[in-house]
Input
Amino acid sequence: MFAIIKNGGRQYKVAVGDRLEVNRLAVEDGAELRIEEVLLISDADRTLVGAPFVENAAVLATVEGQARGEKLIVFRYKPKKRIRHRRGHRQELTVLTISDILADGKSLLPEKKDAEAK
Output
């Protein structure tokens, strides 16, 4: 089971238990985050495709913390002009752990399906 979500102008393929780094979000550590922009959900027996988003679908994530990405070197150079600029950049990130995928307001996890049936 997996879902494709949209966050910060990017699309991510996520499954339950995945650790995901997205652009910095203004949330506290340990907070529960509900991502409503779900483009696709695929389960063992069905696939839900949104136009553009799947209705009544969400991905639940827990914020693990804030981090910084790997340093990227930006080097600008103009030949024969003695112009050289060397700068670095580190992206601010939020680390998320995917805890559940919801479709039509119900969890798609097998153990939660069994608990709801009882």
Summary: The mean pLDDT is 91. DSSP finds one helix and eleven strands in the chain. Residues 2-117 form one domain.
